[in-house]
Amino acid sequence: MGWNLQVGKIEEQYLTEQQIWKTFNVFFSSQSKNTTTYKFGLIKSLIENLYNVNENLELNYDFLFESFAKIYWNLVIHHNLRQVNHSLKSSEIEKVLINFCEKFRIPSDFRFDRLSVTLQLELVQKVKTRAKRYVIGALYGDSEGVIYEFDLKREYMRLNSSIYSFMLKYQKVLTYLTNYHLALFLEKHNKGEDTAHMLMKVENVSKRSSLDQFYRILISFGENTCFYCGKLLDKRSAAHVDHFIPWSFVQTDHLWNLVLACRTCNISKKDRIAKPIFLNALIERNQKLIEMEREPIRRDLEIYNSEKLEKLYHYSIMNGFRNLWSP
Ligand SMILES: [Zn+2]
User: Fold this and answer.
1) Domain residue ranges in the chain
2) How far apart are CA 3 and CA 151, in angstroms?
3) Which entry of 18, 27, 65, 207 is 20 to 30 Å from 74 by CA?
4) Start and end of every HNH nuclease domain (predicted)?
């Protein structure tokens, strides 16, 4: 089994937690030969997209490789980090990103989410074409086909259901492990950085520079008060876009997880989960957004359902967010 497979079937349907830990242990150990950082990038993208799967646990490549492209943009363009274990070669993904920036004369301090939608789509397509070839089959082979099945033509992967539950349950630990091993690899093949600094960079590669576009969407849906205390948000500077489930846990920006909050509530809440009463309020708010049937309805609302949000709330508490906040 290897990187050049076209289709990969799931080898086993049910796996115990012990078996899954074993798979991940092999993946993070020296038994797993990594010539590039691709597998770490793919695991990070999978974790980011755990709530983007459909009811059959299928994830489409557009979601997956948007995360992947954003992560590599930050690693390669923004932080100028080499992604291979060879001093003279570059990985295919690095080449795609660097050529793209040269073609459109994009400076290296430009953030991914500041690119126009057209440019983002073009880049994601290019990254997807390469990653389909080099990334999907590699992790599949490394895990002996237990994590997901995939079909490069139909452009989807379907997660094994025991793996899916496992990843939700241990999301935080898996994120730490992936970031740590990615930082170790990068430290080894890039000069002048220690692990602590590298880890800081790696932990933030999924972060957007601005949530402005979400502010505009929420305001256009008529939200003009603080979701938590009800204070009127009469100007842009008074409104903060808040991740209801903290960003440190979801590491992604879904409209259904974003609310407008006043400065006081946003700062006081910090990296905490709000009390269940706010979960119910958010479920209601999201239902309202869906029923308005208005553009811009983003893709993430199309695959949203309230069970997903309840699950995320439940799993975030299980992953250590125990100190419930209220204003
Ligand atoms: Zn407030």
Assistant:
1) 7-203, 212-318
2) 13
3) 27
4) 213-267
CA-nearest of 121, 136, 146, 142 to 62 is: 121
From ligand 1's centre to the CA of 123, what distance in Å? 38
125 alpha carbon to ligand 1 midpoint, in Å?
40
Q: How far is the CA of 296 from the centre of ligand 1 (A)?
A: 25
User: How does pLDDT run across 179-198, given as a tens digit for each residue?
Assistant: 999 999 999 999 877 888 89
pLDDT digits (tens, 9 = 90+) for 242-259: 999 999 888 888 899 999
Q: Which long-range contacts (CB under 8 A, 24 or more apart) does 292-300 make?
A: 292/221, 294/221, 296/217, 296/220, 298/217, 298/255, 299/63, 300/52, 300/254, 300/255, 300/256
Quick check: 57 and 161 in contact, CB under 8 A? yes
Cα(219) to ligand 1 centroid in Å equals 16
d(Cα 219, Cα 109) in Å, to the nearest integer? 29
Orientation of helix 306-318 relative to helix 161-169, angle to 10°:
50
277 CA from centroid of ligand 1 (Å): 15
Read off the pLDDT band of 12 (50, 70, 90): low
- For residue 41, the CA-to-ligand 1 centroid distance in Å is 36
Contact 80, 72 (CB under 8 A): no
Q: What is the domain class of 212-318 according to CATH?
A: mainly alpha
- Ligand 1 center to residue 229 CA distance, Å? 4
Angle at 258 between CA 255 and CA 262, to 5 degrees: 145
**Cα(272) to centroid of ligand 1, in Å?**
15
